[in-house]
């Protein structure tokens, strides 16, 4: 308890004791309730009881010092009044303290449960995000082995596969680090000025050799230089990969004979300087629900889905000061639009 609270409580107790030494003012013993109120909730129940007993003793001492003979009977009534008041306030303060302690205990239990839930979410998010680089590592390891097992081993191709394994391993490690930071709610600091066009192209290259790149045509960004953003490269890559994987799964599930997924990016100047990235596919679109609801965690319509992809995308985009929205594009297909602020000043 605070030093000043104790000092004030002691001061009030002494003052009340001195007042009650005056015969006409012995009913002022009720003012000991102020001492109880002052320390209530700031000390343990044991301390509260000790202080209450101290107040009662002071009331009795003052009473016996002041009263004798004829005054005794009227004084007893006043003493009983102030003792009753002190006891009632002590009981109320004790109950209040117990209620506060219970609430604090419950808050601690809840905080602990929250930490366990957060740990679960970290695990699920990592499992979701690391899946892609891990399958890329497996694919490159297999094709590297094939290049080496040829009658005339192609070392150049094998080295390329090793490079890709190295890059994807680093990416998986960076993803784990970022997901941990994101789930802890920490501001991600590892940000640099990024050339968005380069990041998008590198991300599409990362998907080379995967099922997606074999079956789907990805329209790369054309035209001049795209603007620069201030961001975390691994997170922006995760964002694009998640959206591309969703688009790929949508066209695969809908058995589209000529699947098309396009990625486009353009500067929009309303409300300041922003860049808009759009990922569009010709699958069957979002099913029977407001598209906003698909950004909630664990919202999935896929048998083996986790429902984390869009929720992670939203976290990434918002951490970069941007917005993300999804919509269906009649007659078929879906489009996700990400708007990110441009880096200031543009290099
Ligand atoms: P998951 O892919 O594990 O289901 P997501 O959060 O990435 O988790 O996606 C949530 C849901 O949003 C998907 O199950 C799917 O129903 C819907 N969805 C996402 N992207 C698309 C898309 N391009 N076309 C149609 N539906 C989509």
Automatic annotation (TrEMBL):
Record EC number: 2.7.13.3
Presence of the UniProt keyword Nucleotide-binding in the record: yes
Superkingdom of origin organism: Bacteria
SMART domains linked: HATPase_c, HisKA
Residue span, Histidine kinase domain: 125-344
Enzyme class: transferase
Record Pfam families: HATPase_c, HisKA
Catalyzed reaction equations: ATP + protein L-histidine = ADP + protein N-phospho-L-histidine
Record bears the keyword Transferase: yes
Transmembrane segments: 12-40, 47-66, 72-93
CDD domains tied to this protein: HisKA
Keyword list, A-Z: ATP-binding, Kinase, Membrane, Nucleotide-binding, Phosphoprotein, Transferase, Transmembrane, Transmembrane helix, Two-component regulatory system
UniProt name for this protein: histidine kinase
Lineage summary: Bacteria, Pseudomonadati, Pseudomonadota, Alphaproteobacteria, Acetobacterales
């Amino acid at each position: 308890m605070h030093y000043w609270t104790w000092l004030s409580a002691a001061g009030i107790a002494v003052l009340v004791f001195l007042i009650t030494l005056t015969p006409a003012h012995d009913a002022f013993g009720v003012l000991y309730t102020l001492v109880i109120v002052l320390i209530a909730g700031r000390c343990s129940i044991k301390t509260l009881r000790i202080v209450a007993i101290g107040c009662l003793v002071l009331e009795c001492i003052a009473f016996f010092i002041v009263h004798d003979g004829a005054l005794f009977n009227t004084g007893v009534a006043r003493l009983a009044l102030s003792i009753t008041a002190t006891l009632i306030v002590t009981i109320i303060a004790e109950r209040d303290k117990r209620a506060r302690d219970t609430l604090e205990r419950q808050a601690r239990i809840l905080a602990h449960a929250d930490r366990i839930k957060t740990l679960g979410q970290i695990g699920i998010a990592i499992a979701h995000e690391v899946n892609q680089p891990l399958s890329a590592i497996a694919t490159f390891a297999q094709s590297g082995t094939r290049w080496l097992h040829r009658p005339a081993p192609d070392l150049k191709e094998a080295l390329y596969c090793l490079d890709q394994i190295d890059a994807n391993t680093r990416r998986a490690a960076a993803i784990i680090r970022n997901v941990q930071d994101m789930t802890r709610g920490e501001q991600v600091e590892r940000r640099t000025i990024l050339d968005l066009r380069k990041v998008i192209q590198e991300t599409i290259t990362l998907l080379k050799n995967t099922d997606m790149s074999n079956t789907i045509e990805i329209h790369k960004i054309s035209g001049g230089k795209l603007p620069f953003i201030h961001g975390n490269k691994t997170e922006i890559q995760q964002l694009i990969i998640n959206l591309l994987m969703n688009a790929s799964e949508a066209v695969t599930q809908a058995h589209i004979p000529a699947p098309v997924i396009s990625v486009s990016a353009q500067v929009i100047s309303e409300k300041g300087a922003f860049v808009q990235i759009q990922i569009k596919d010709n699958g069957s679109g979002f099913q029977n629900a407001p598209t906003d609801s698909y950004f909630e965690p664990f919202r999935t319509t896929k048998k083996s889905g986790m429902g984390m992809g869009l929720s992670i995308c939203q976290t990434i985009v918002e951490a970069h000061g941007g917005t993300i929205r999804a919509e269906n594009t009649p007659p078929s297909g879906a489009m996700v639009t990400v708007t990110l602020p441009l880096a200031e000043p543009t290099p």
